[in-house]
Specification:
Pfam families: Peptidase_S9, Peptidase_S9_N. 19% of the residues lie in helices and 32% in strands.
Length: 703
């Protein structure tokens, strides 16, 4: 049953430095705005440059966290050991044919990072393309970004972030020599080879806005690179990629719900970019090439759940778009891949994905699905990098089934299992139960819920539960396998994923219903799921630990304000909780592009009132809150560290309970926490130890 986790004496108290902002005739009082460093952009790259008063406060909060969680240190070590025991240390991927080679990734035993390798396609000696461990050895943090081999397979372009700020450095590896060329290019967001000597890349500016596309000739001085495209609209970010056909590089510029694509022929990389269809309010599209046509996945013509059209490469504007896969309400077309002879797409119905395909030139009525039987599962589409092939790869998992890699022959329909992820410490899927149920929200909406528990867990209302949610940007939460999650489930937890509005599990309308003034639907859905779990005897009030990160942290913060009585505890990972101040600040990296989600509170009083009505920071109340664990990262460009820091400071000054409230800030990394496959387990162990402690769960895993 629940166990008290009370505040310790000497909790840090942030100094109050009152400030007032005047917006739409409203005075916004903020005692903790000073926690935003005036040099935040500099500190993001070099965290040691954070002002002393701010750094001292964050360090004090970290020390408080360490003291409060000291009695879980042994438990955390056991959790890490368990989770590590489920990882095959000398693991390797299924080789992928690409040109004259078969490329693969493998881990040496005990290694944090992989080696990227290749061997001749028809067999031969392995060659190391990139040893990530060697590159990461001198860094406290290391995250590999993009890596693409040149069309002649002689050079690897690769990027890395060494502090969590997501400012990536581009390097060029001579694969045969095993060394990089003697220069680098800083602050690269994406890249695409045109030919064996020419590469396009996108640079981010000081505000972390990817807005300039350059053309680089291998071996030349980057200072001489040609600026090909500049995006002036701060709402739009730019990315480049090479189409599978190899005939074009695409420049895609857009925000969450609107974009525009230009193409450059790879046989004439100095040509000016040519637009497919100019930006139009609310129009989204993505492009593949198939012969003399572009295949375009789009929401044009009120195709809310998307459709696929065909257009001539010579005249690809919207006036020439002809439906290939018509729009069908409730069937979300999630992704599209085009081979020379095949069109493949992933679609989602009733929160479950499936893959469909049809031969080029054949009517859509002849399309065939790849079918699966479990109640809830996850699919990953992994098409070949080669254009002229009949082979398609996908991954499958479910909450009970570890990931499996299949190669599928589109001509014969033969499905070949190439790999099942090994759980070295053992895993018997028959010992676990996956259930898909629905919960009725405040307005009658039926919210899908994916539930995982051990077969022998009593469903009498006594089980602790970890309830996870996200619900923003149309991101759908997959019903996928998680080896880490078993450390809770084996201790008697019910694990539940709330597929709330804001995602696209039930189609585009499921997402649209939680934008702008509809955002509270996300929070009501989550509360309805919790109540349905209680009604179904899966758990009970104050037995539920809630968890969400980033925009999922907004969800956590909102439901804490709305229904604090339901929860045993809350884990808010890098939470987006200072929503009003952030969306009012158009100097922040992501804000302009966010207005399509939340509204523009600078221009619109209605948007201002909507956001102010649910923003967790602005709605902290003098009421009891459950125990809470909050995380942040100084280098985080997505949710800046001061959002969780301010929120914790205001909560501690306002709430009426004596429950623990902890802020743990990673002083040397960003949004995604620790890097490395084993080091990252420590973050999971901290969260799980907190959940185990606040629910009073016996520390003894079954299985």
């Amino acid at each position: 049953m629940p166990r008290s986790f009370k505040a310790l004496p000497g909790a840090p108290v942030a100094e109050r430095r009152p400030s007032i902002a005047h917006v739409h005739g409203v005075n916004l009082h903020d005692d903790y705005a000073w926690l935003r460093a005036s040099n935040w952009q500099e500190a993001m790259r070099e965290p040691q440059k954070l002002p002393t008063d701010i750094a001292s406060y964050l360090v004090a909060e970290n020390a408080y966290y360490e003291t409060a969680m000291a009695d879980t240190v042994d438990l955390q070590a056991r959790l890490v050991e368990e989770m590590r025991g489920r990882i095959k240390e000398d693991d390797s991927s299924v080789p992928r044919d690409h040109g004259p080679f078969a490329y693969a990734m493998r881990f040496a035993e005990g290694a944090e990072y992989p080696l990227f390798t290749r061997m001749p396609r028809d067999g031969g000696a392995e060659q190391v393309v990139l040893d990530v461990n060697a590159e990461a050895a001198a860094q406290a943090y290391f995250q590999l970004g993009r890596s693409q081999v040149s069309p002649d397979h002689k050079v690897l372009a690769w990027t890395a972030d060494v502090n969590g700020s997501e400012f990536y450095r581009l390097s060029f590896r001579d694969i045969d020599a095993g060394t990089d060329l003697d220069y680098h290019i800083e602050d690269v967001a994406s890249l695409a080879w045109a030919d064996a000597r020419t590469l396009f890349y996108v640079r981010v500016d000081a505000r972390h806005h990817p807005n300039k596309v350059f053309r680089h000739v291998l071996g030349s001085d980057p200072a001489e690179d040609v600026l090909v495209f500049t995006e002036e609209d701060t709402r739009y970010g730019v990315a480049v990629h090479r189409l599978r056909s190899g005939e074009f590089v695409a420049l895609s510029t857009g925000m969450n719900d609107e974009n525009e694509i230009h193409v450059i022929p790879t046989d004439d990389p100095q040509a000016a970019p040519r637009v497919i269809e100019p930006r139009t309010r609310g129009l989204e599209y993505e492009v593949e090439q198939q012969g003399d046509s572009f295949l375009i996945r789009t929401n044009a013509d009120d195709a809310f759940d998307f459709k696929v059209v065909r257009a001539p490469v010579s005249a690809p504007s919207r006036a020439n778009w002809v439906d290939l896969i018509p729009h069908e309400p409730g069937r979300m077309i999630v992704s599209l891949a085009a081979y020379r002879g095949w069109t493949i797409w992933m679609e989602r119905r009733n929160a479950l994905p499936r893959i469909c395909y049809v031969a080029q030139g054949r009517p859509i009525s002849e399309a065939r699905p790849i079918a699966f039987e479990e109640q809830a599962y996850s699919l990953g589409s992994d098409p070949s990098p080669e254009y002229d092939t009949d082979s398609f790869r996908f991954t499958y998992s479910s909450p009970t089934t570890p990931p499996q890699v299949f190669d599928y022959d589109l001509s014969s329909g033969e499905r070949v299992l190439r790999k099942t992820t090994e759980i070295p410490s053992g895993h018997d899927p028959a010992e676990y139960v996956t259930i898909r149920m629905t919960a009725t929200s405040h307005d009658g909406a039926q919210v899908p819920v994916t539930i995982l528990h051990r077969k022998d867990t009593p469903l009498d209302g006594t089980a602790p539960c970890l309830l996870y949610g996200y619900g923003s940007y149309g991101a759908s939460m997959p019903a996928a396998f998680s080896a880490n999650r078993l450390s809770l489930v084996d201790r008697g937890f019910v694990h539940a994923i709330a597929h709330v509005r804001g995602g696209e599990e039930l189609g585009r309308n499921w997402y649209e219903a939680a934008k702008f003034g509809g955002k509270p639907n996300t929070f009501h859905d989550f509360i309805a799921v919790a109540e349905a779990l209680v009604d179904g005897r899966y758990t009970a009030p104050r037995r539920i630990v809630i968890q969400g990160g980033s925009a999922g942290g907004l969800l956590v913060g909102a439901v804490l304000n709305m229904r604090p009585d339901l929860w045993a505890g809350a884990i808010a990972d890098v939470p987006f909780v200072d929503v009003l101040a952030t969306i009012l600040d158009d100097t922040l990296p992501l804000t302009p592009g966010e207005w399509s989600q939340w509204g523009n509170p600078i221009e619109s009083r209605e948007a201002f009132d909507n956001i102010r009505g649910y923003s967790p920071y602005d709605n902290v109340a003098a009421q009891d809150y459950p125990p809470m664990l909050v995380t942040a990262g100084v280098s985080d460009p997505r949710v800046t560290y001061w959002e969780p820091a301010k929120w914790v400071a205001r909560l501690r000054a306002t709430k009426t309970d004596d429950n623990i409230l902890m802020l743990r800030t990673n002083m040397s990394s960003g949004h995604f926490g620790k890097s490395g496959r084993f080091a990252a387990l420590e973050d999971a162990a901290r969260s799980y130890a907190f959940a185990i402690k606040v629910t009073g769960t016996e520390d003894g895993a079954r299985g």
